[in-house]
Every structure is written in C-alpha cells, then in structure tokens.
Amino acid sequence: MQSDLPFSQACENNKAPILAVLQQAFANCSKVLEVGSGTGQHAVHFAGALPHLCWQASDQAMYLPDLTERLRRVALPNLPLPLQLDISTDALPEQQFDALFSANTLHIMPWPVVKQFFSRLTALTTQQATLCIYGPFNYNGRFTSDSNKAFDLSLKSRDPAMGIRDVAAVVALAAAAGFTLQHDHSMPANNRLLQFFRTGA
Description:
Elements: H1 9-25, E1 31-34, H2 41-49, E2 54-56, E3 58-59, H3 64-74, E4 83-84, E5 97-103, H4 111-119, H5 121-124, E6 125-135, E7 137-138, H6 146-158, E8 165-166, H7 167-176, E9 179-187, E10 191-198
Parallel strand pairs: 1-2, 1-5, 3-4, 5-6, 7-8
Antiparallel strand pairs: 6-10, 9-10
Helix pairs in contact: 1-2
C-alpha cells in the first residue's frame, strides 16, 4: 500500500511481539515519545492498537520527510506528525511524556550518545514514567547468539563506536536517571525488551 516509502522487514517481524509487551507496559500511560521512529511502521502499528495513547514519533532531520508522509497518510487521531529530535544535539520538546519507547537505537548510537540519551530522560519524562527499550543486548560482556556476534562485527565495520550494549551498563545509566528495571522480556530473534519505571523527582 505504501511501497514508495522506506520499509523495514524487521519492523514488520517484531511489531506484534513488541505490542504484546507494550499493551501491559503502557496500559496506564497517556502520552508516549518514540525516539528514533525510523520508517514509522512501529508508530503506525502501536498507535492504531493503543488508541488510549497519544503516540509522538520523532527522529533526526534526514528521516523526517518519509516518516512524516507515512504518518500523514494513515491520519490516526492519536498519532501527530513527528518531531525533529537528534538526542545528542537538538533541543528537547517542551512537553513531558509518561512513557518513552525506542527500538534498535542503542547499538547504532555511539556510546557517548547513549549516555546523553539517558541523561536527558529526566527532562523528557514526568515523575512517574515507563521506559521501554527494544533491541539486542549482551550479558556479562557475552553475546547471546552467534548471529548477534556477527551483527556486532558488522556494526563495528561501519563505525567502531557502534555495537551491541551490555545490559548491566544500560541498567546503570537508567538507574542514574532515576529509572529502575522492572522486566527484561525475552523477544524473538535474540532480542530483548527492557522495561523500566521512574518514580519520584
């Protein structure tokens, strides 16, 4: 239907299992910010399935034209047009969100940008907020599969600053921002969905 727009097969493959987690994780939330919305396939699917949420997509300027067009075509009432947001350089939205979602971004961001992402969470979220991060992760410095190891080598061949992150390091950054890990969900294709909750100032 939208073959003229960028398409991610991975998004098509993982949107259903991710949604199954978000349905309970975001059940009591009202406004979610998605960081790194990419093609917009996740935003469209999740906003359509979670009508109680206002789903705010965002991404870097280079991805906005196609992302905006996909969202414009579906015209869901709870899916506003995307915001420009490079987490390392752009000013943050003035509004705050009680939910935040990001998929397949931490291994693309250089590690200093990952740290920036977590350091800015306090300004982006309300005092009680849920954070869900999807993607591949290592445990105790070890890959969970040969395919993840090969993927990590591929990432580092593009940019040595990229790579699959260790869960412990991510949890530590989240804790410093006031977010506590609640669930570590096993997902298909050797991925995880880390679910955090923020309480207090």
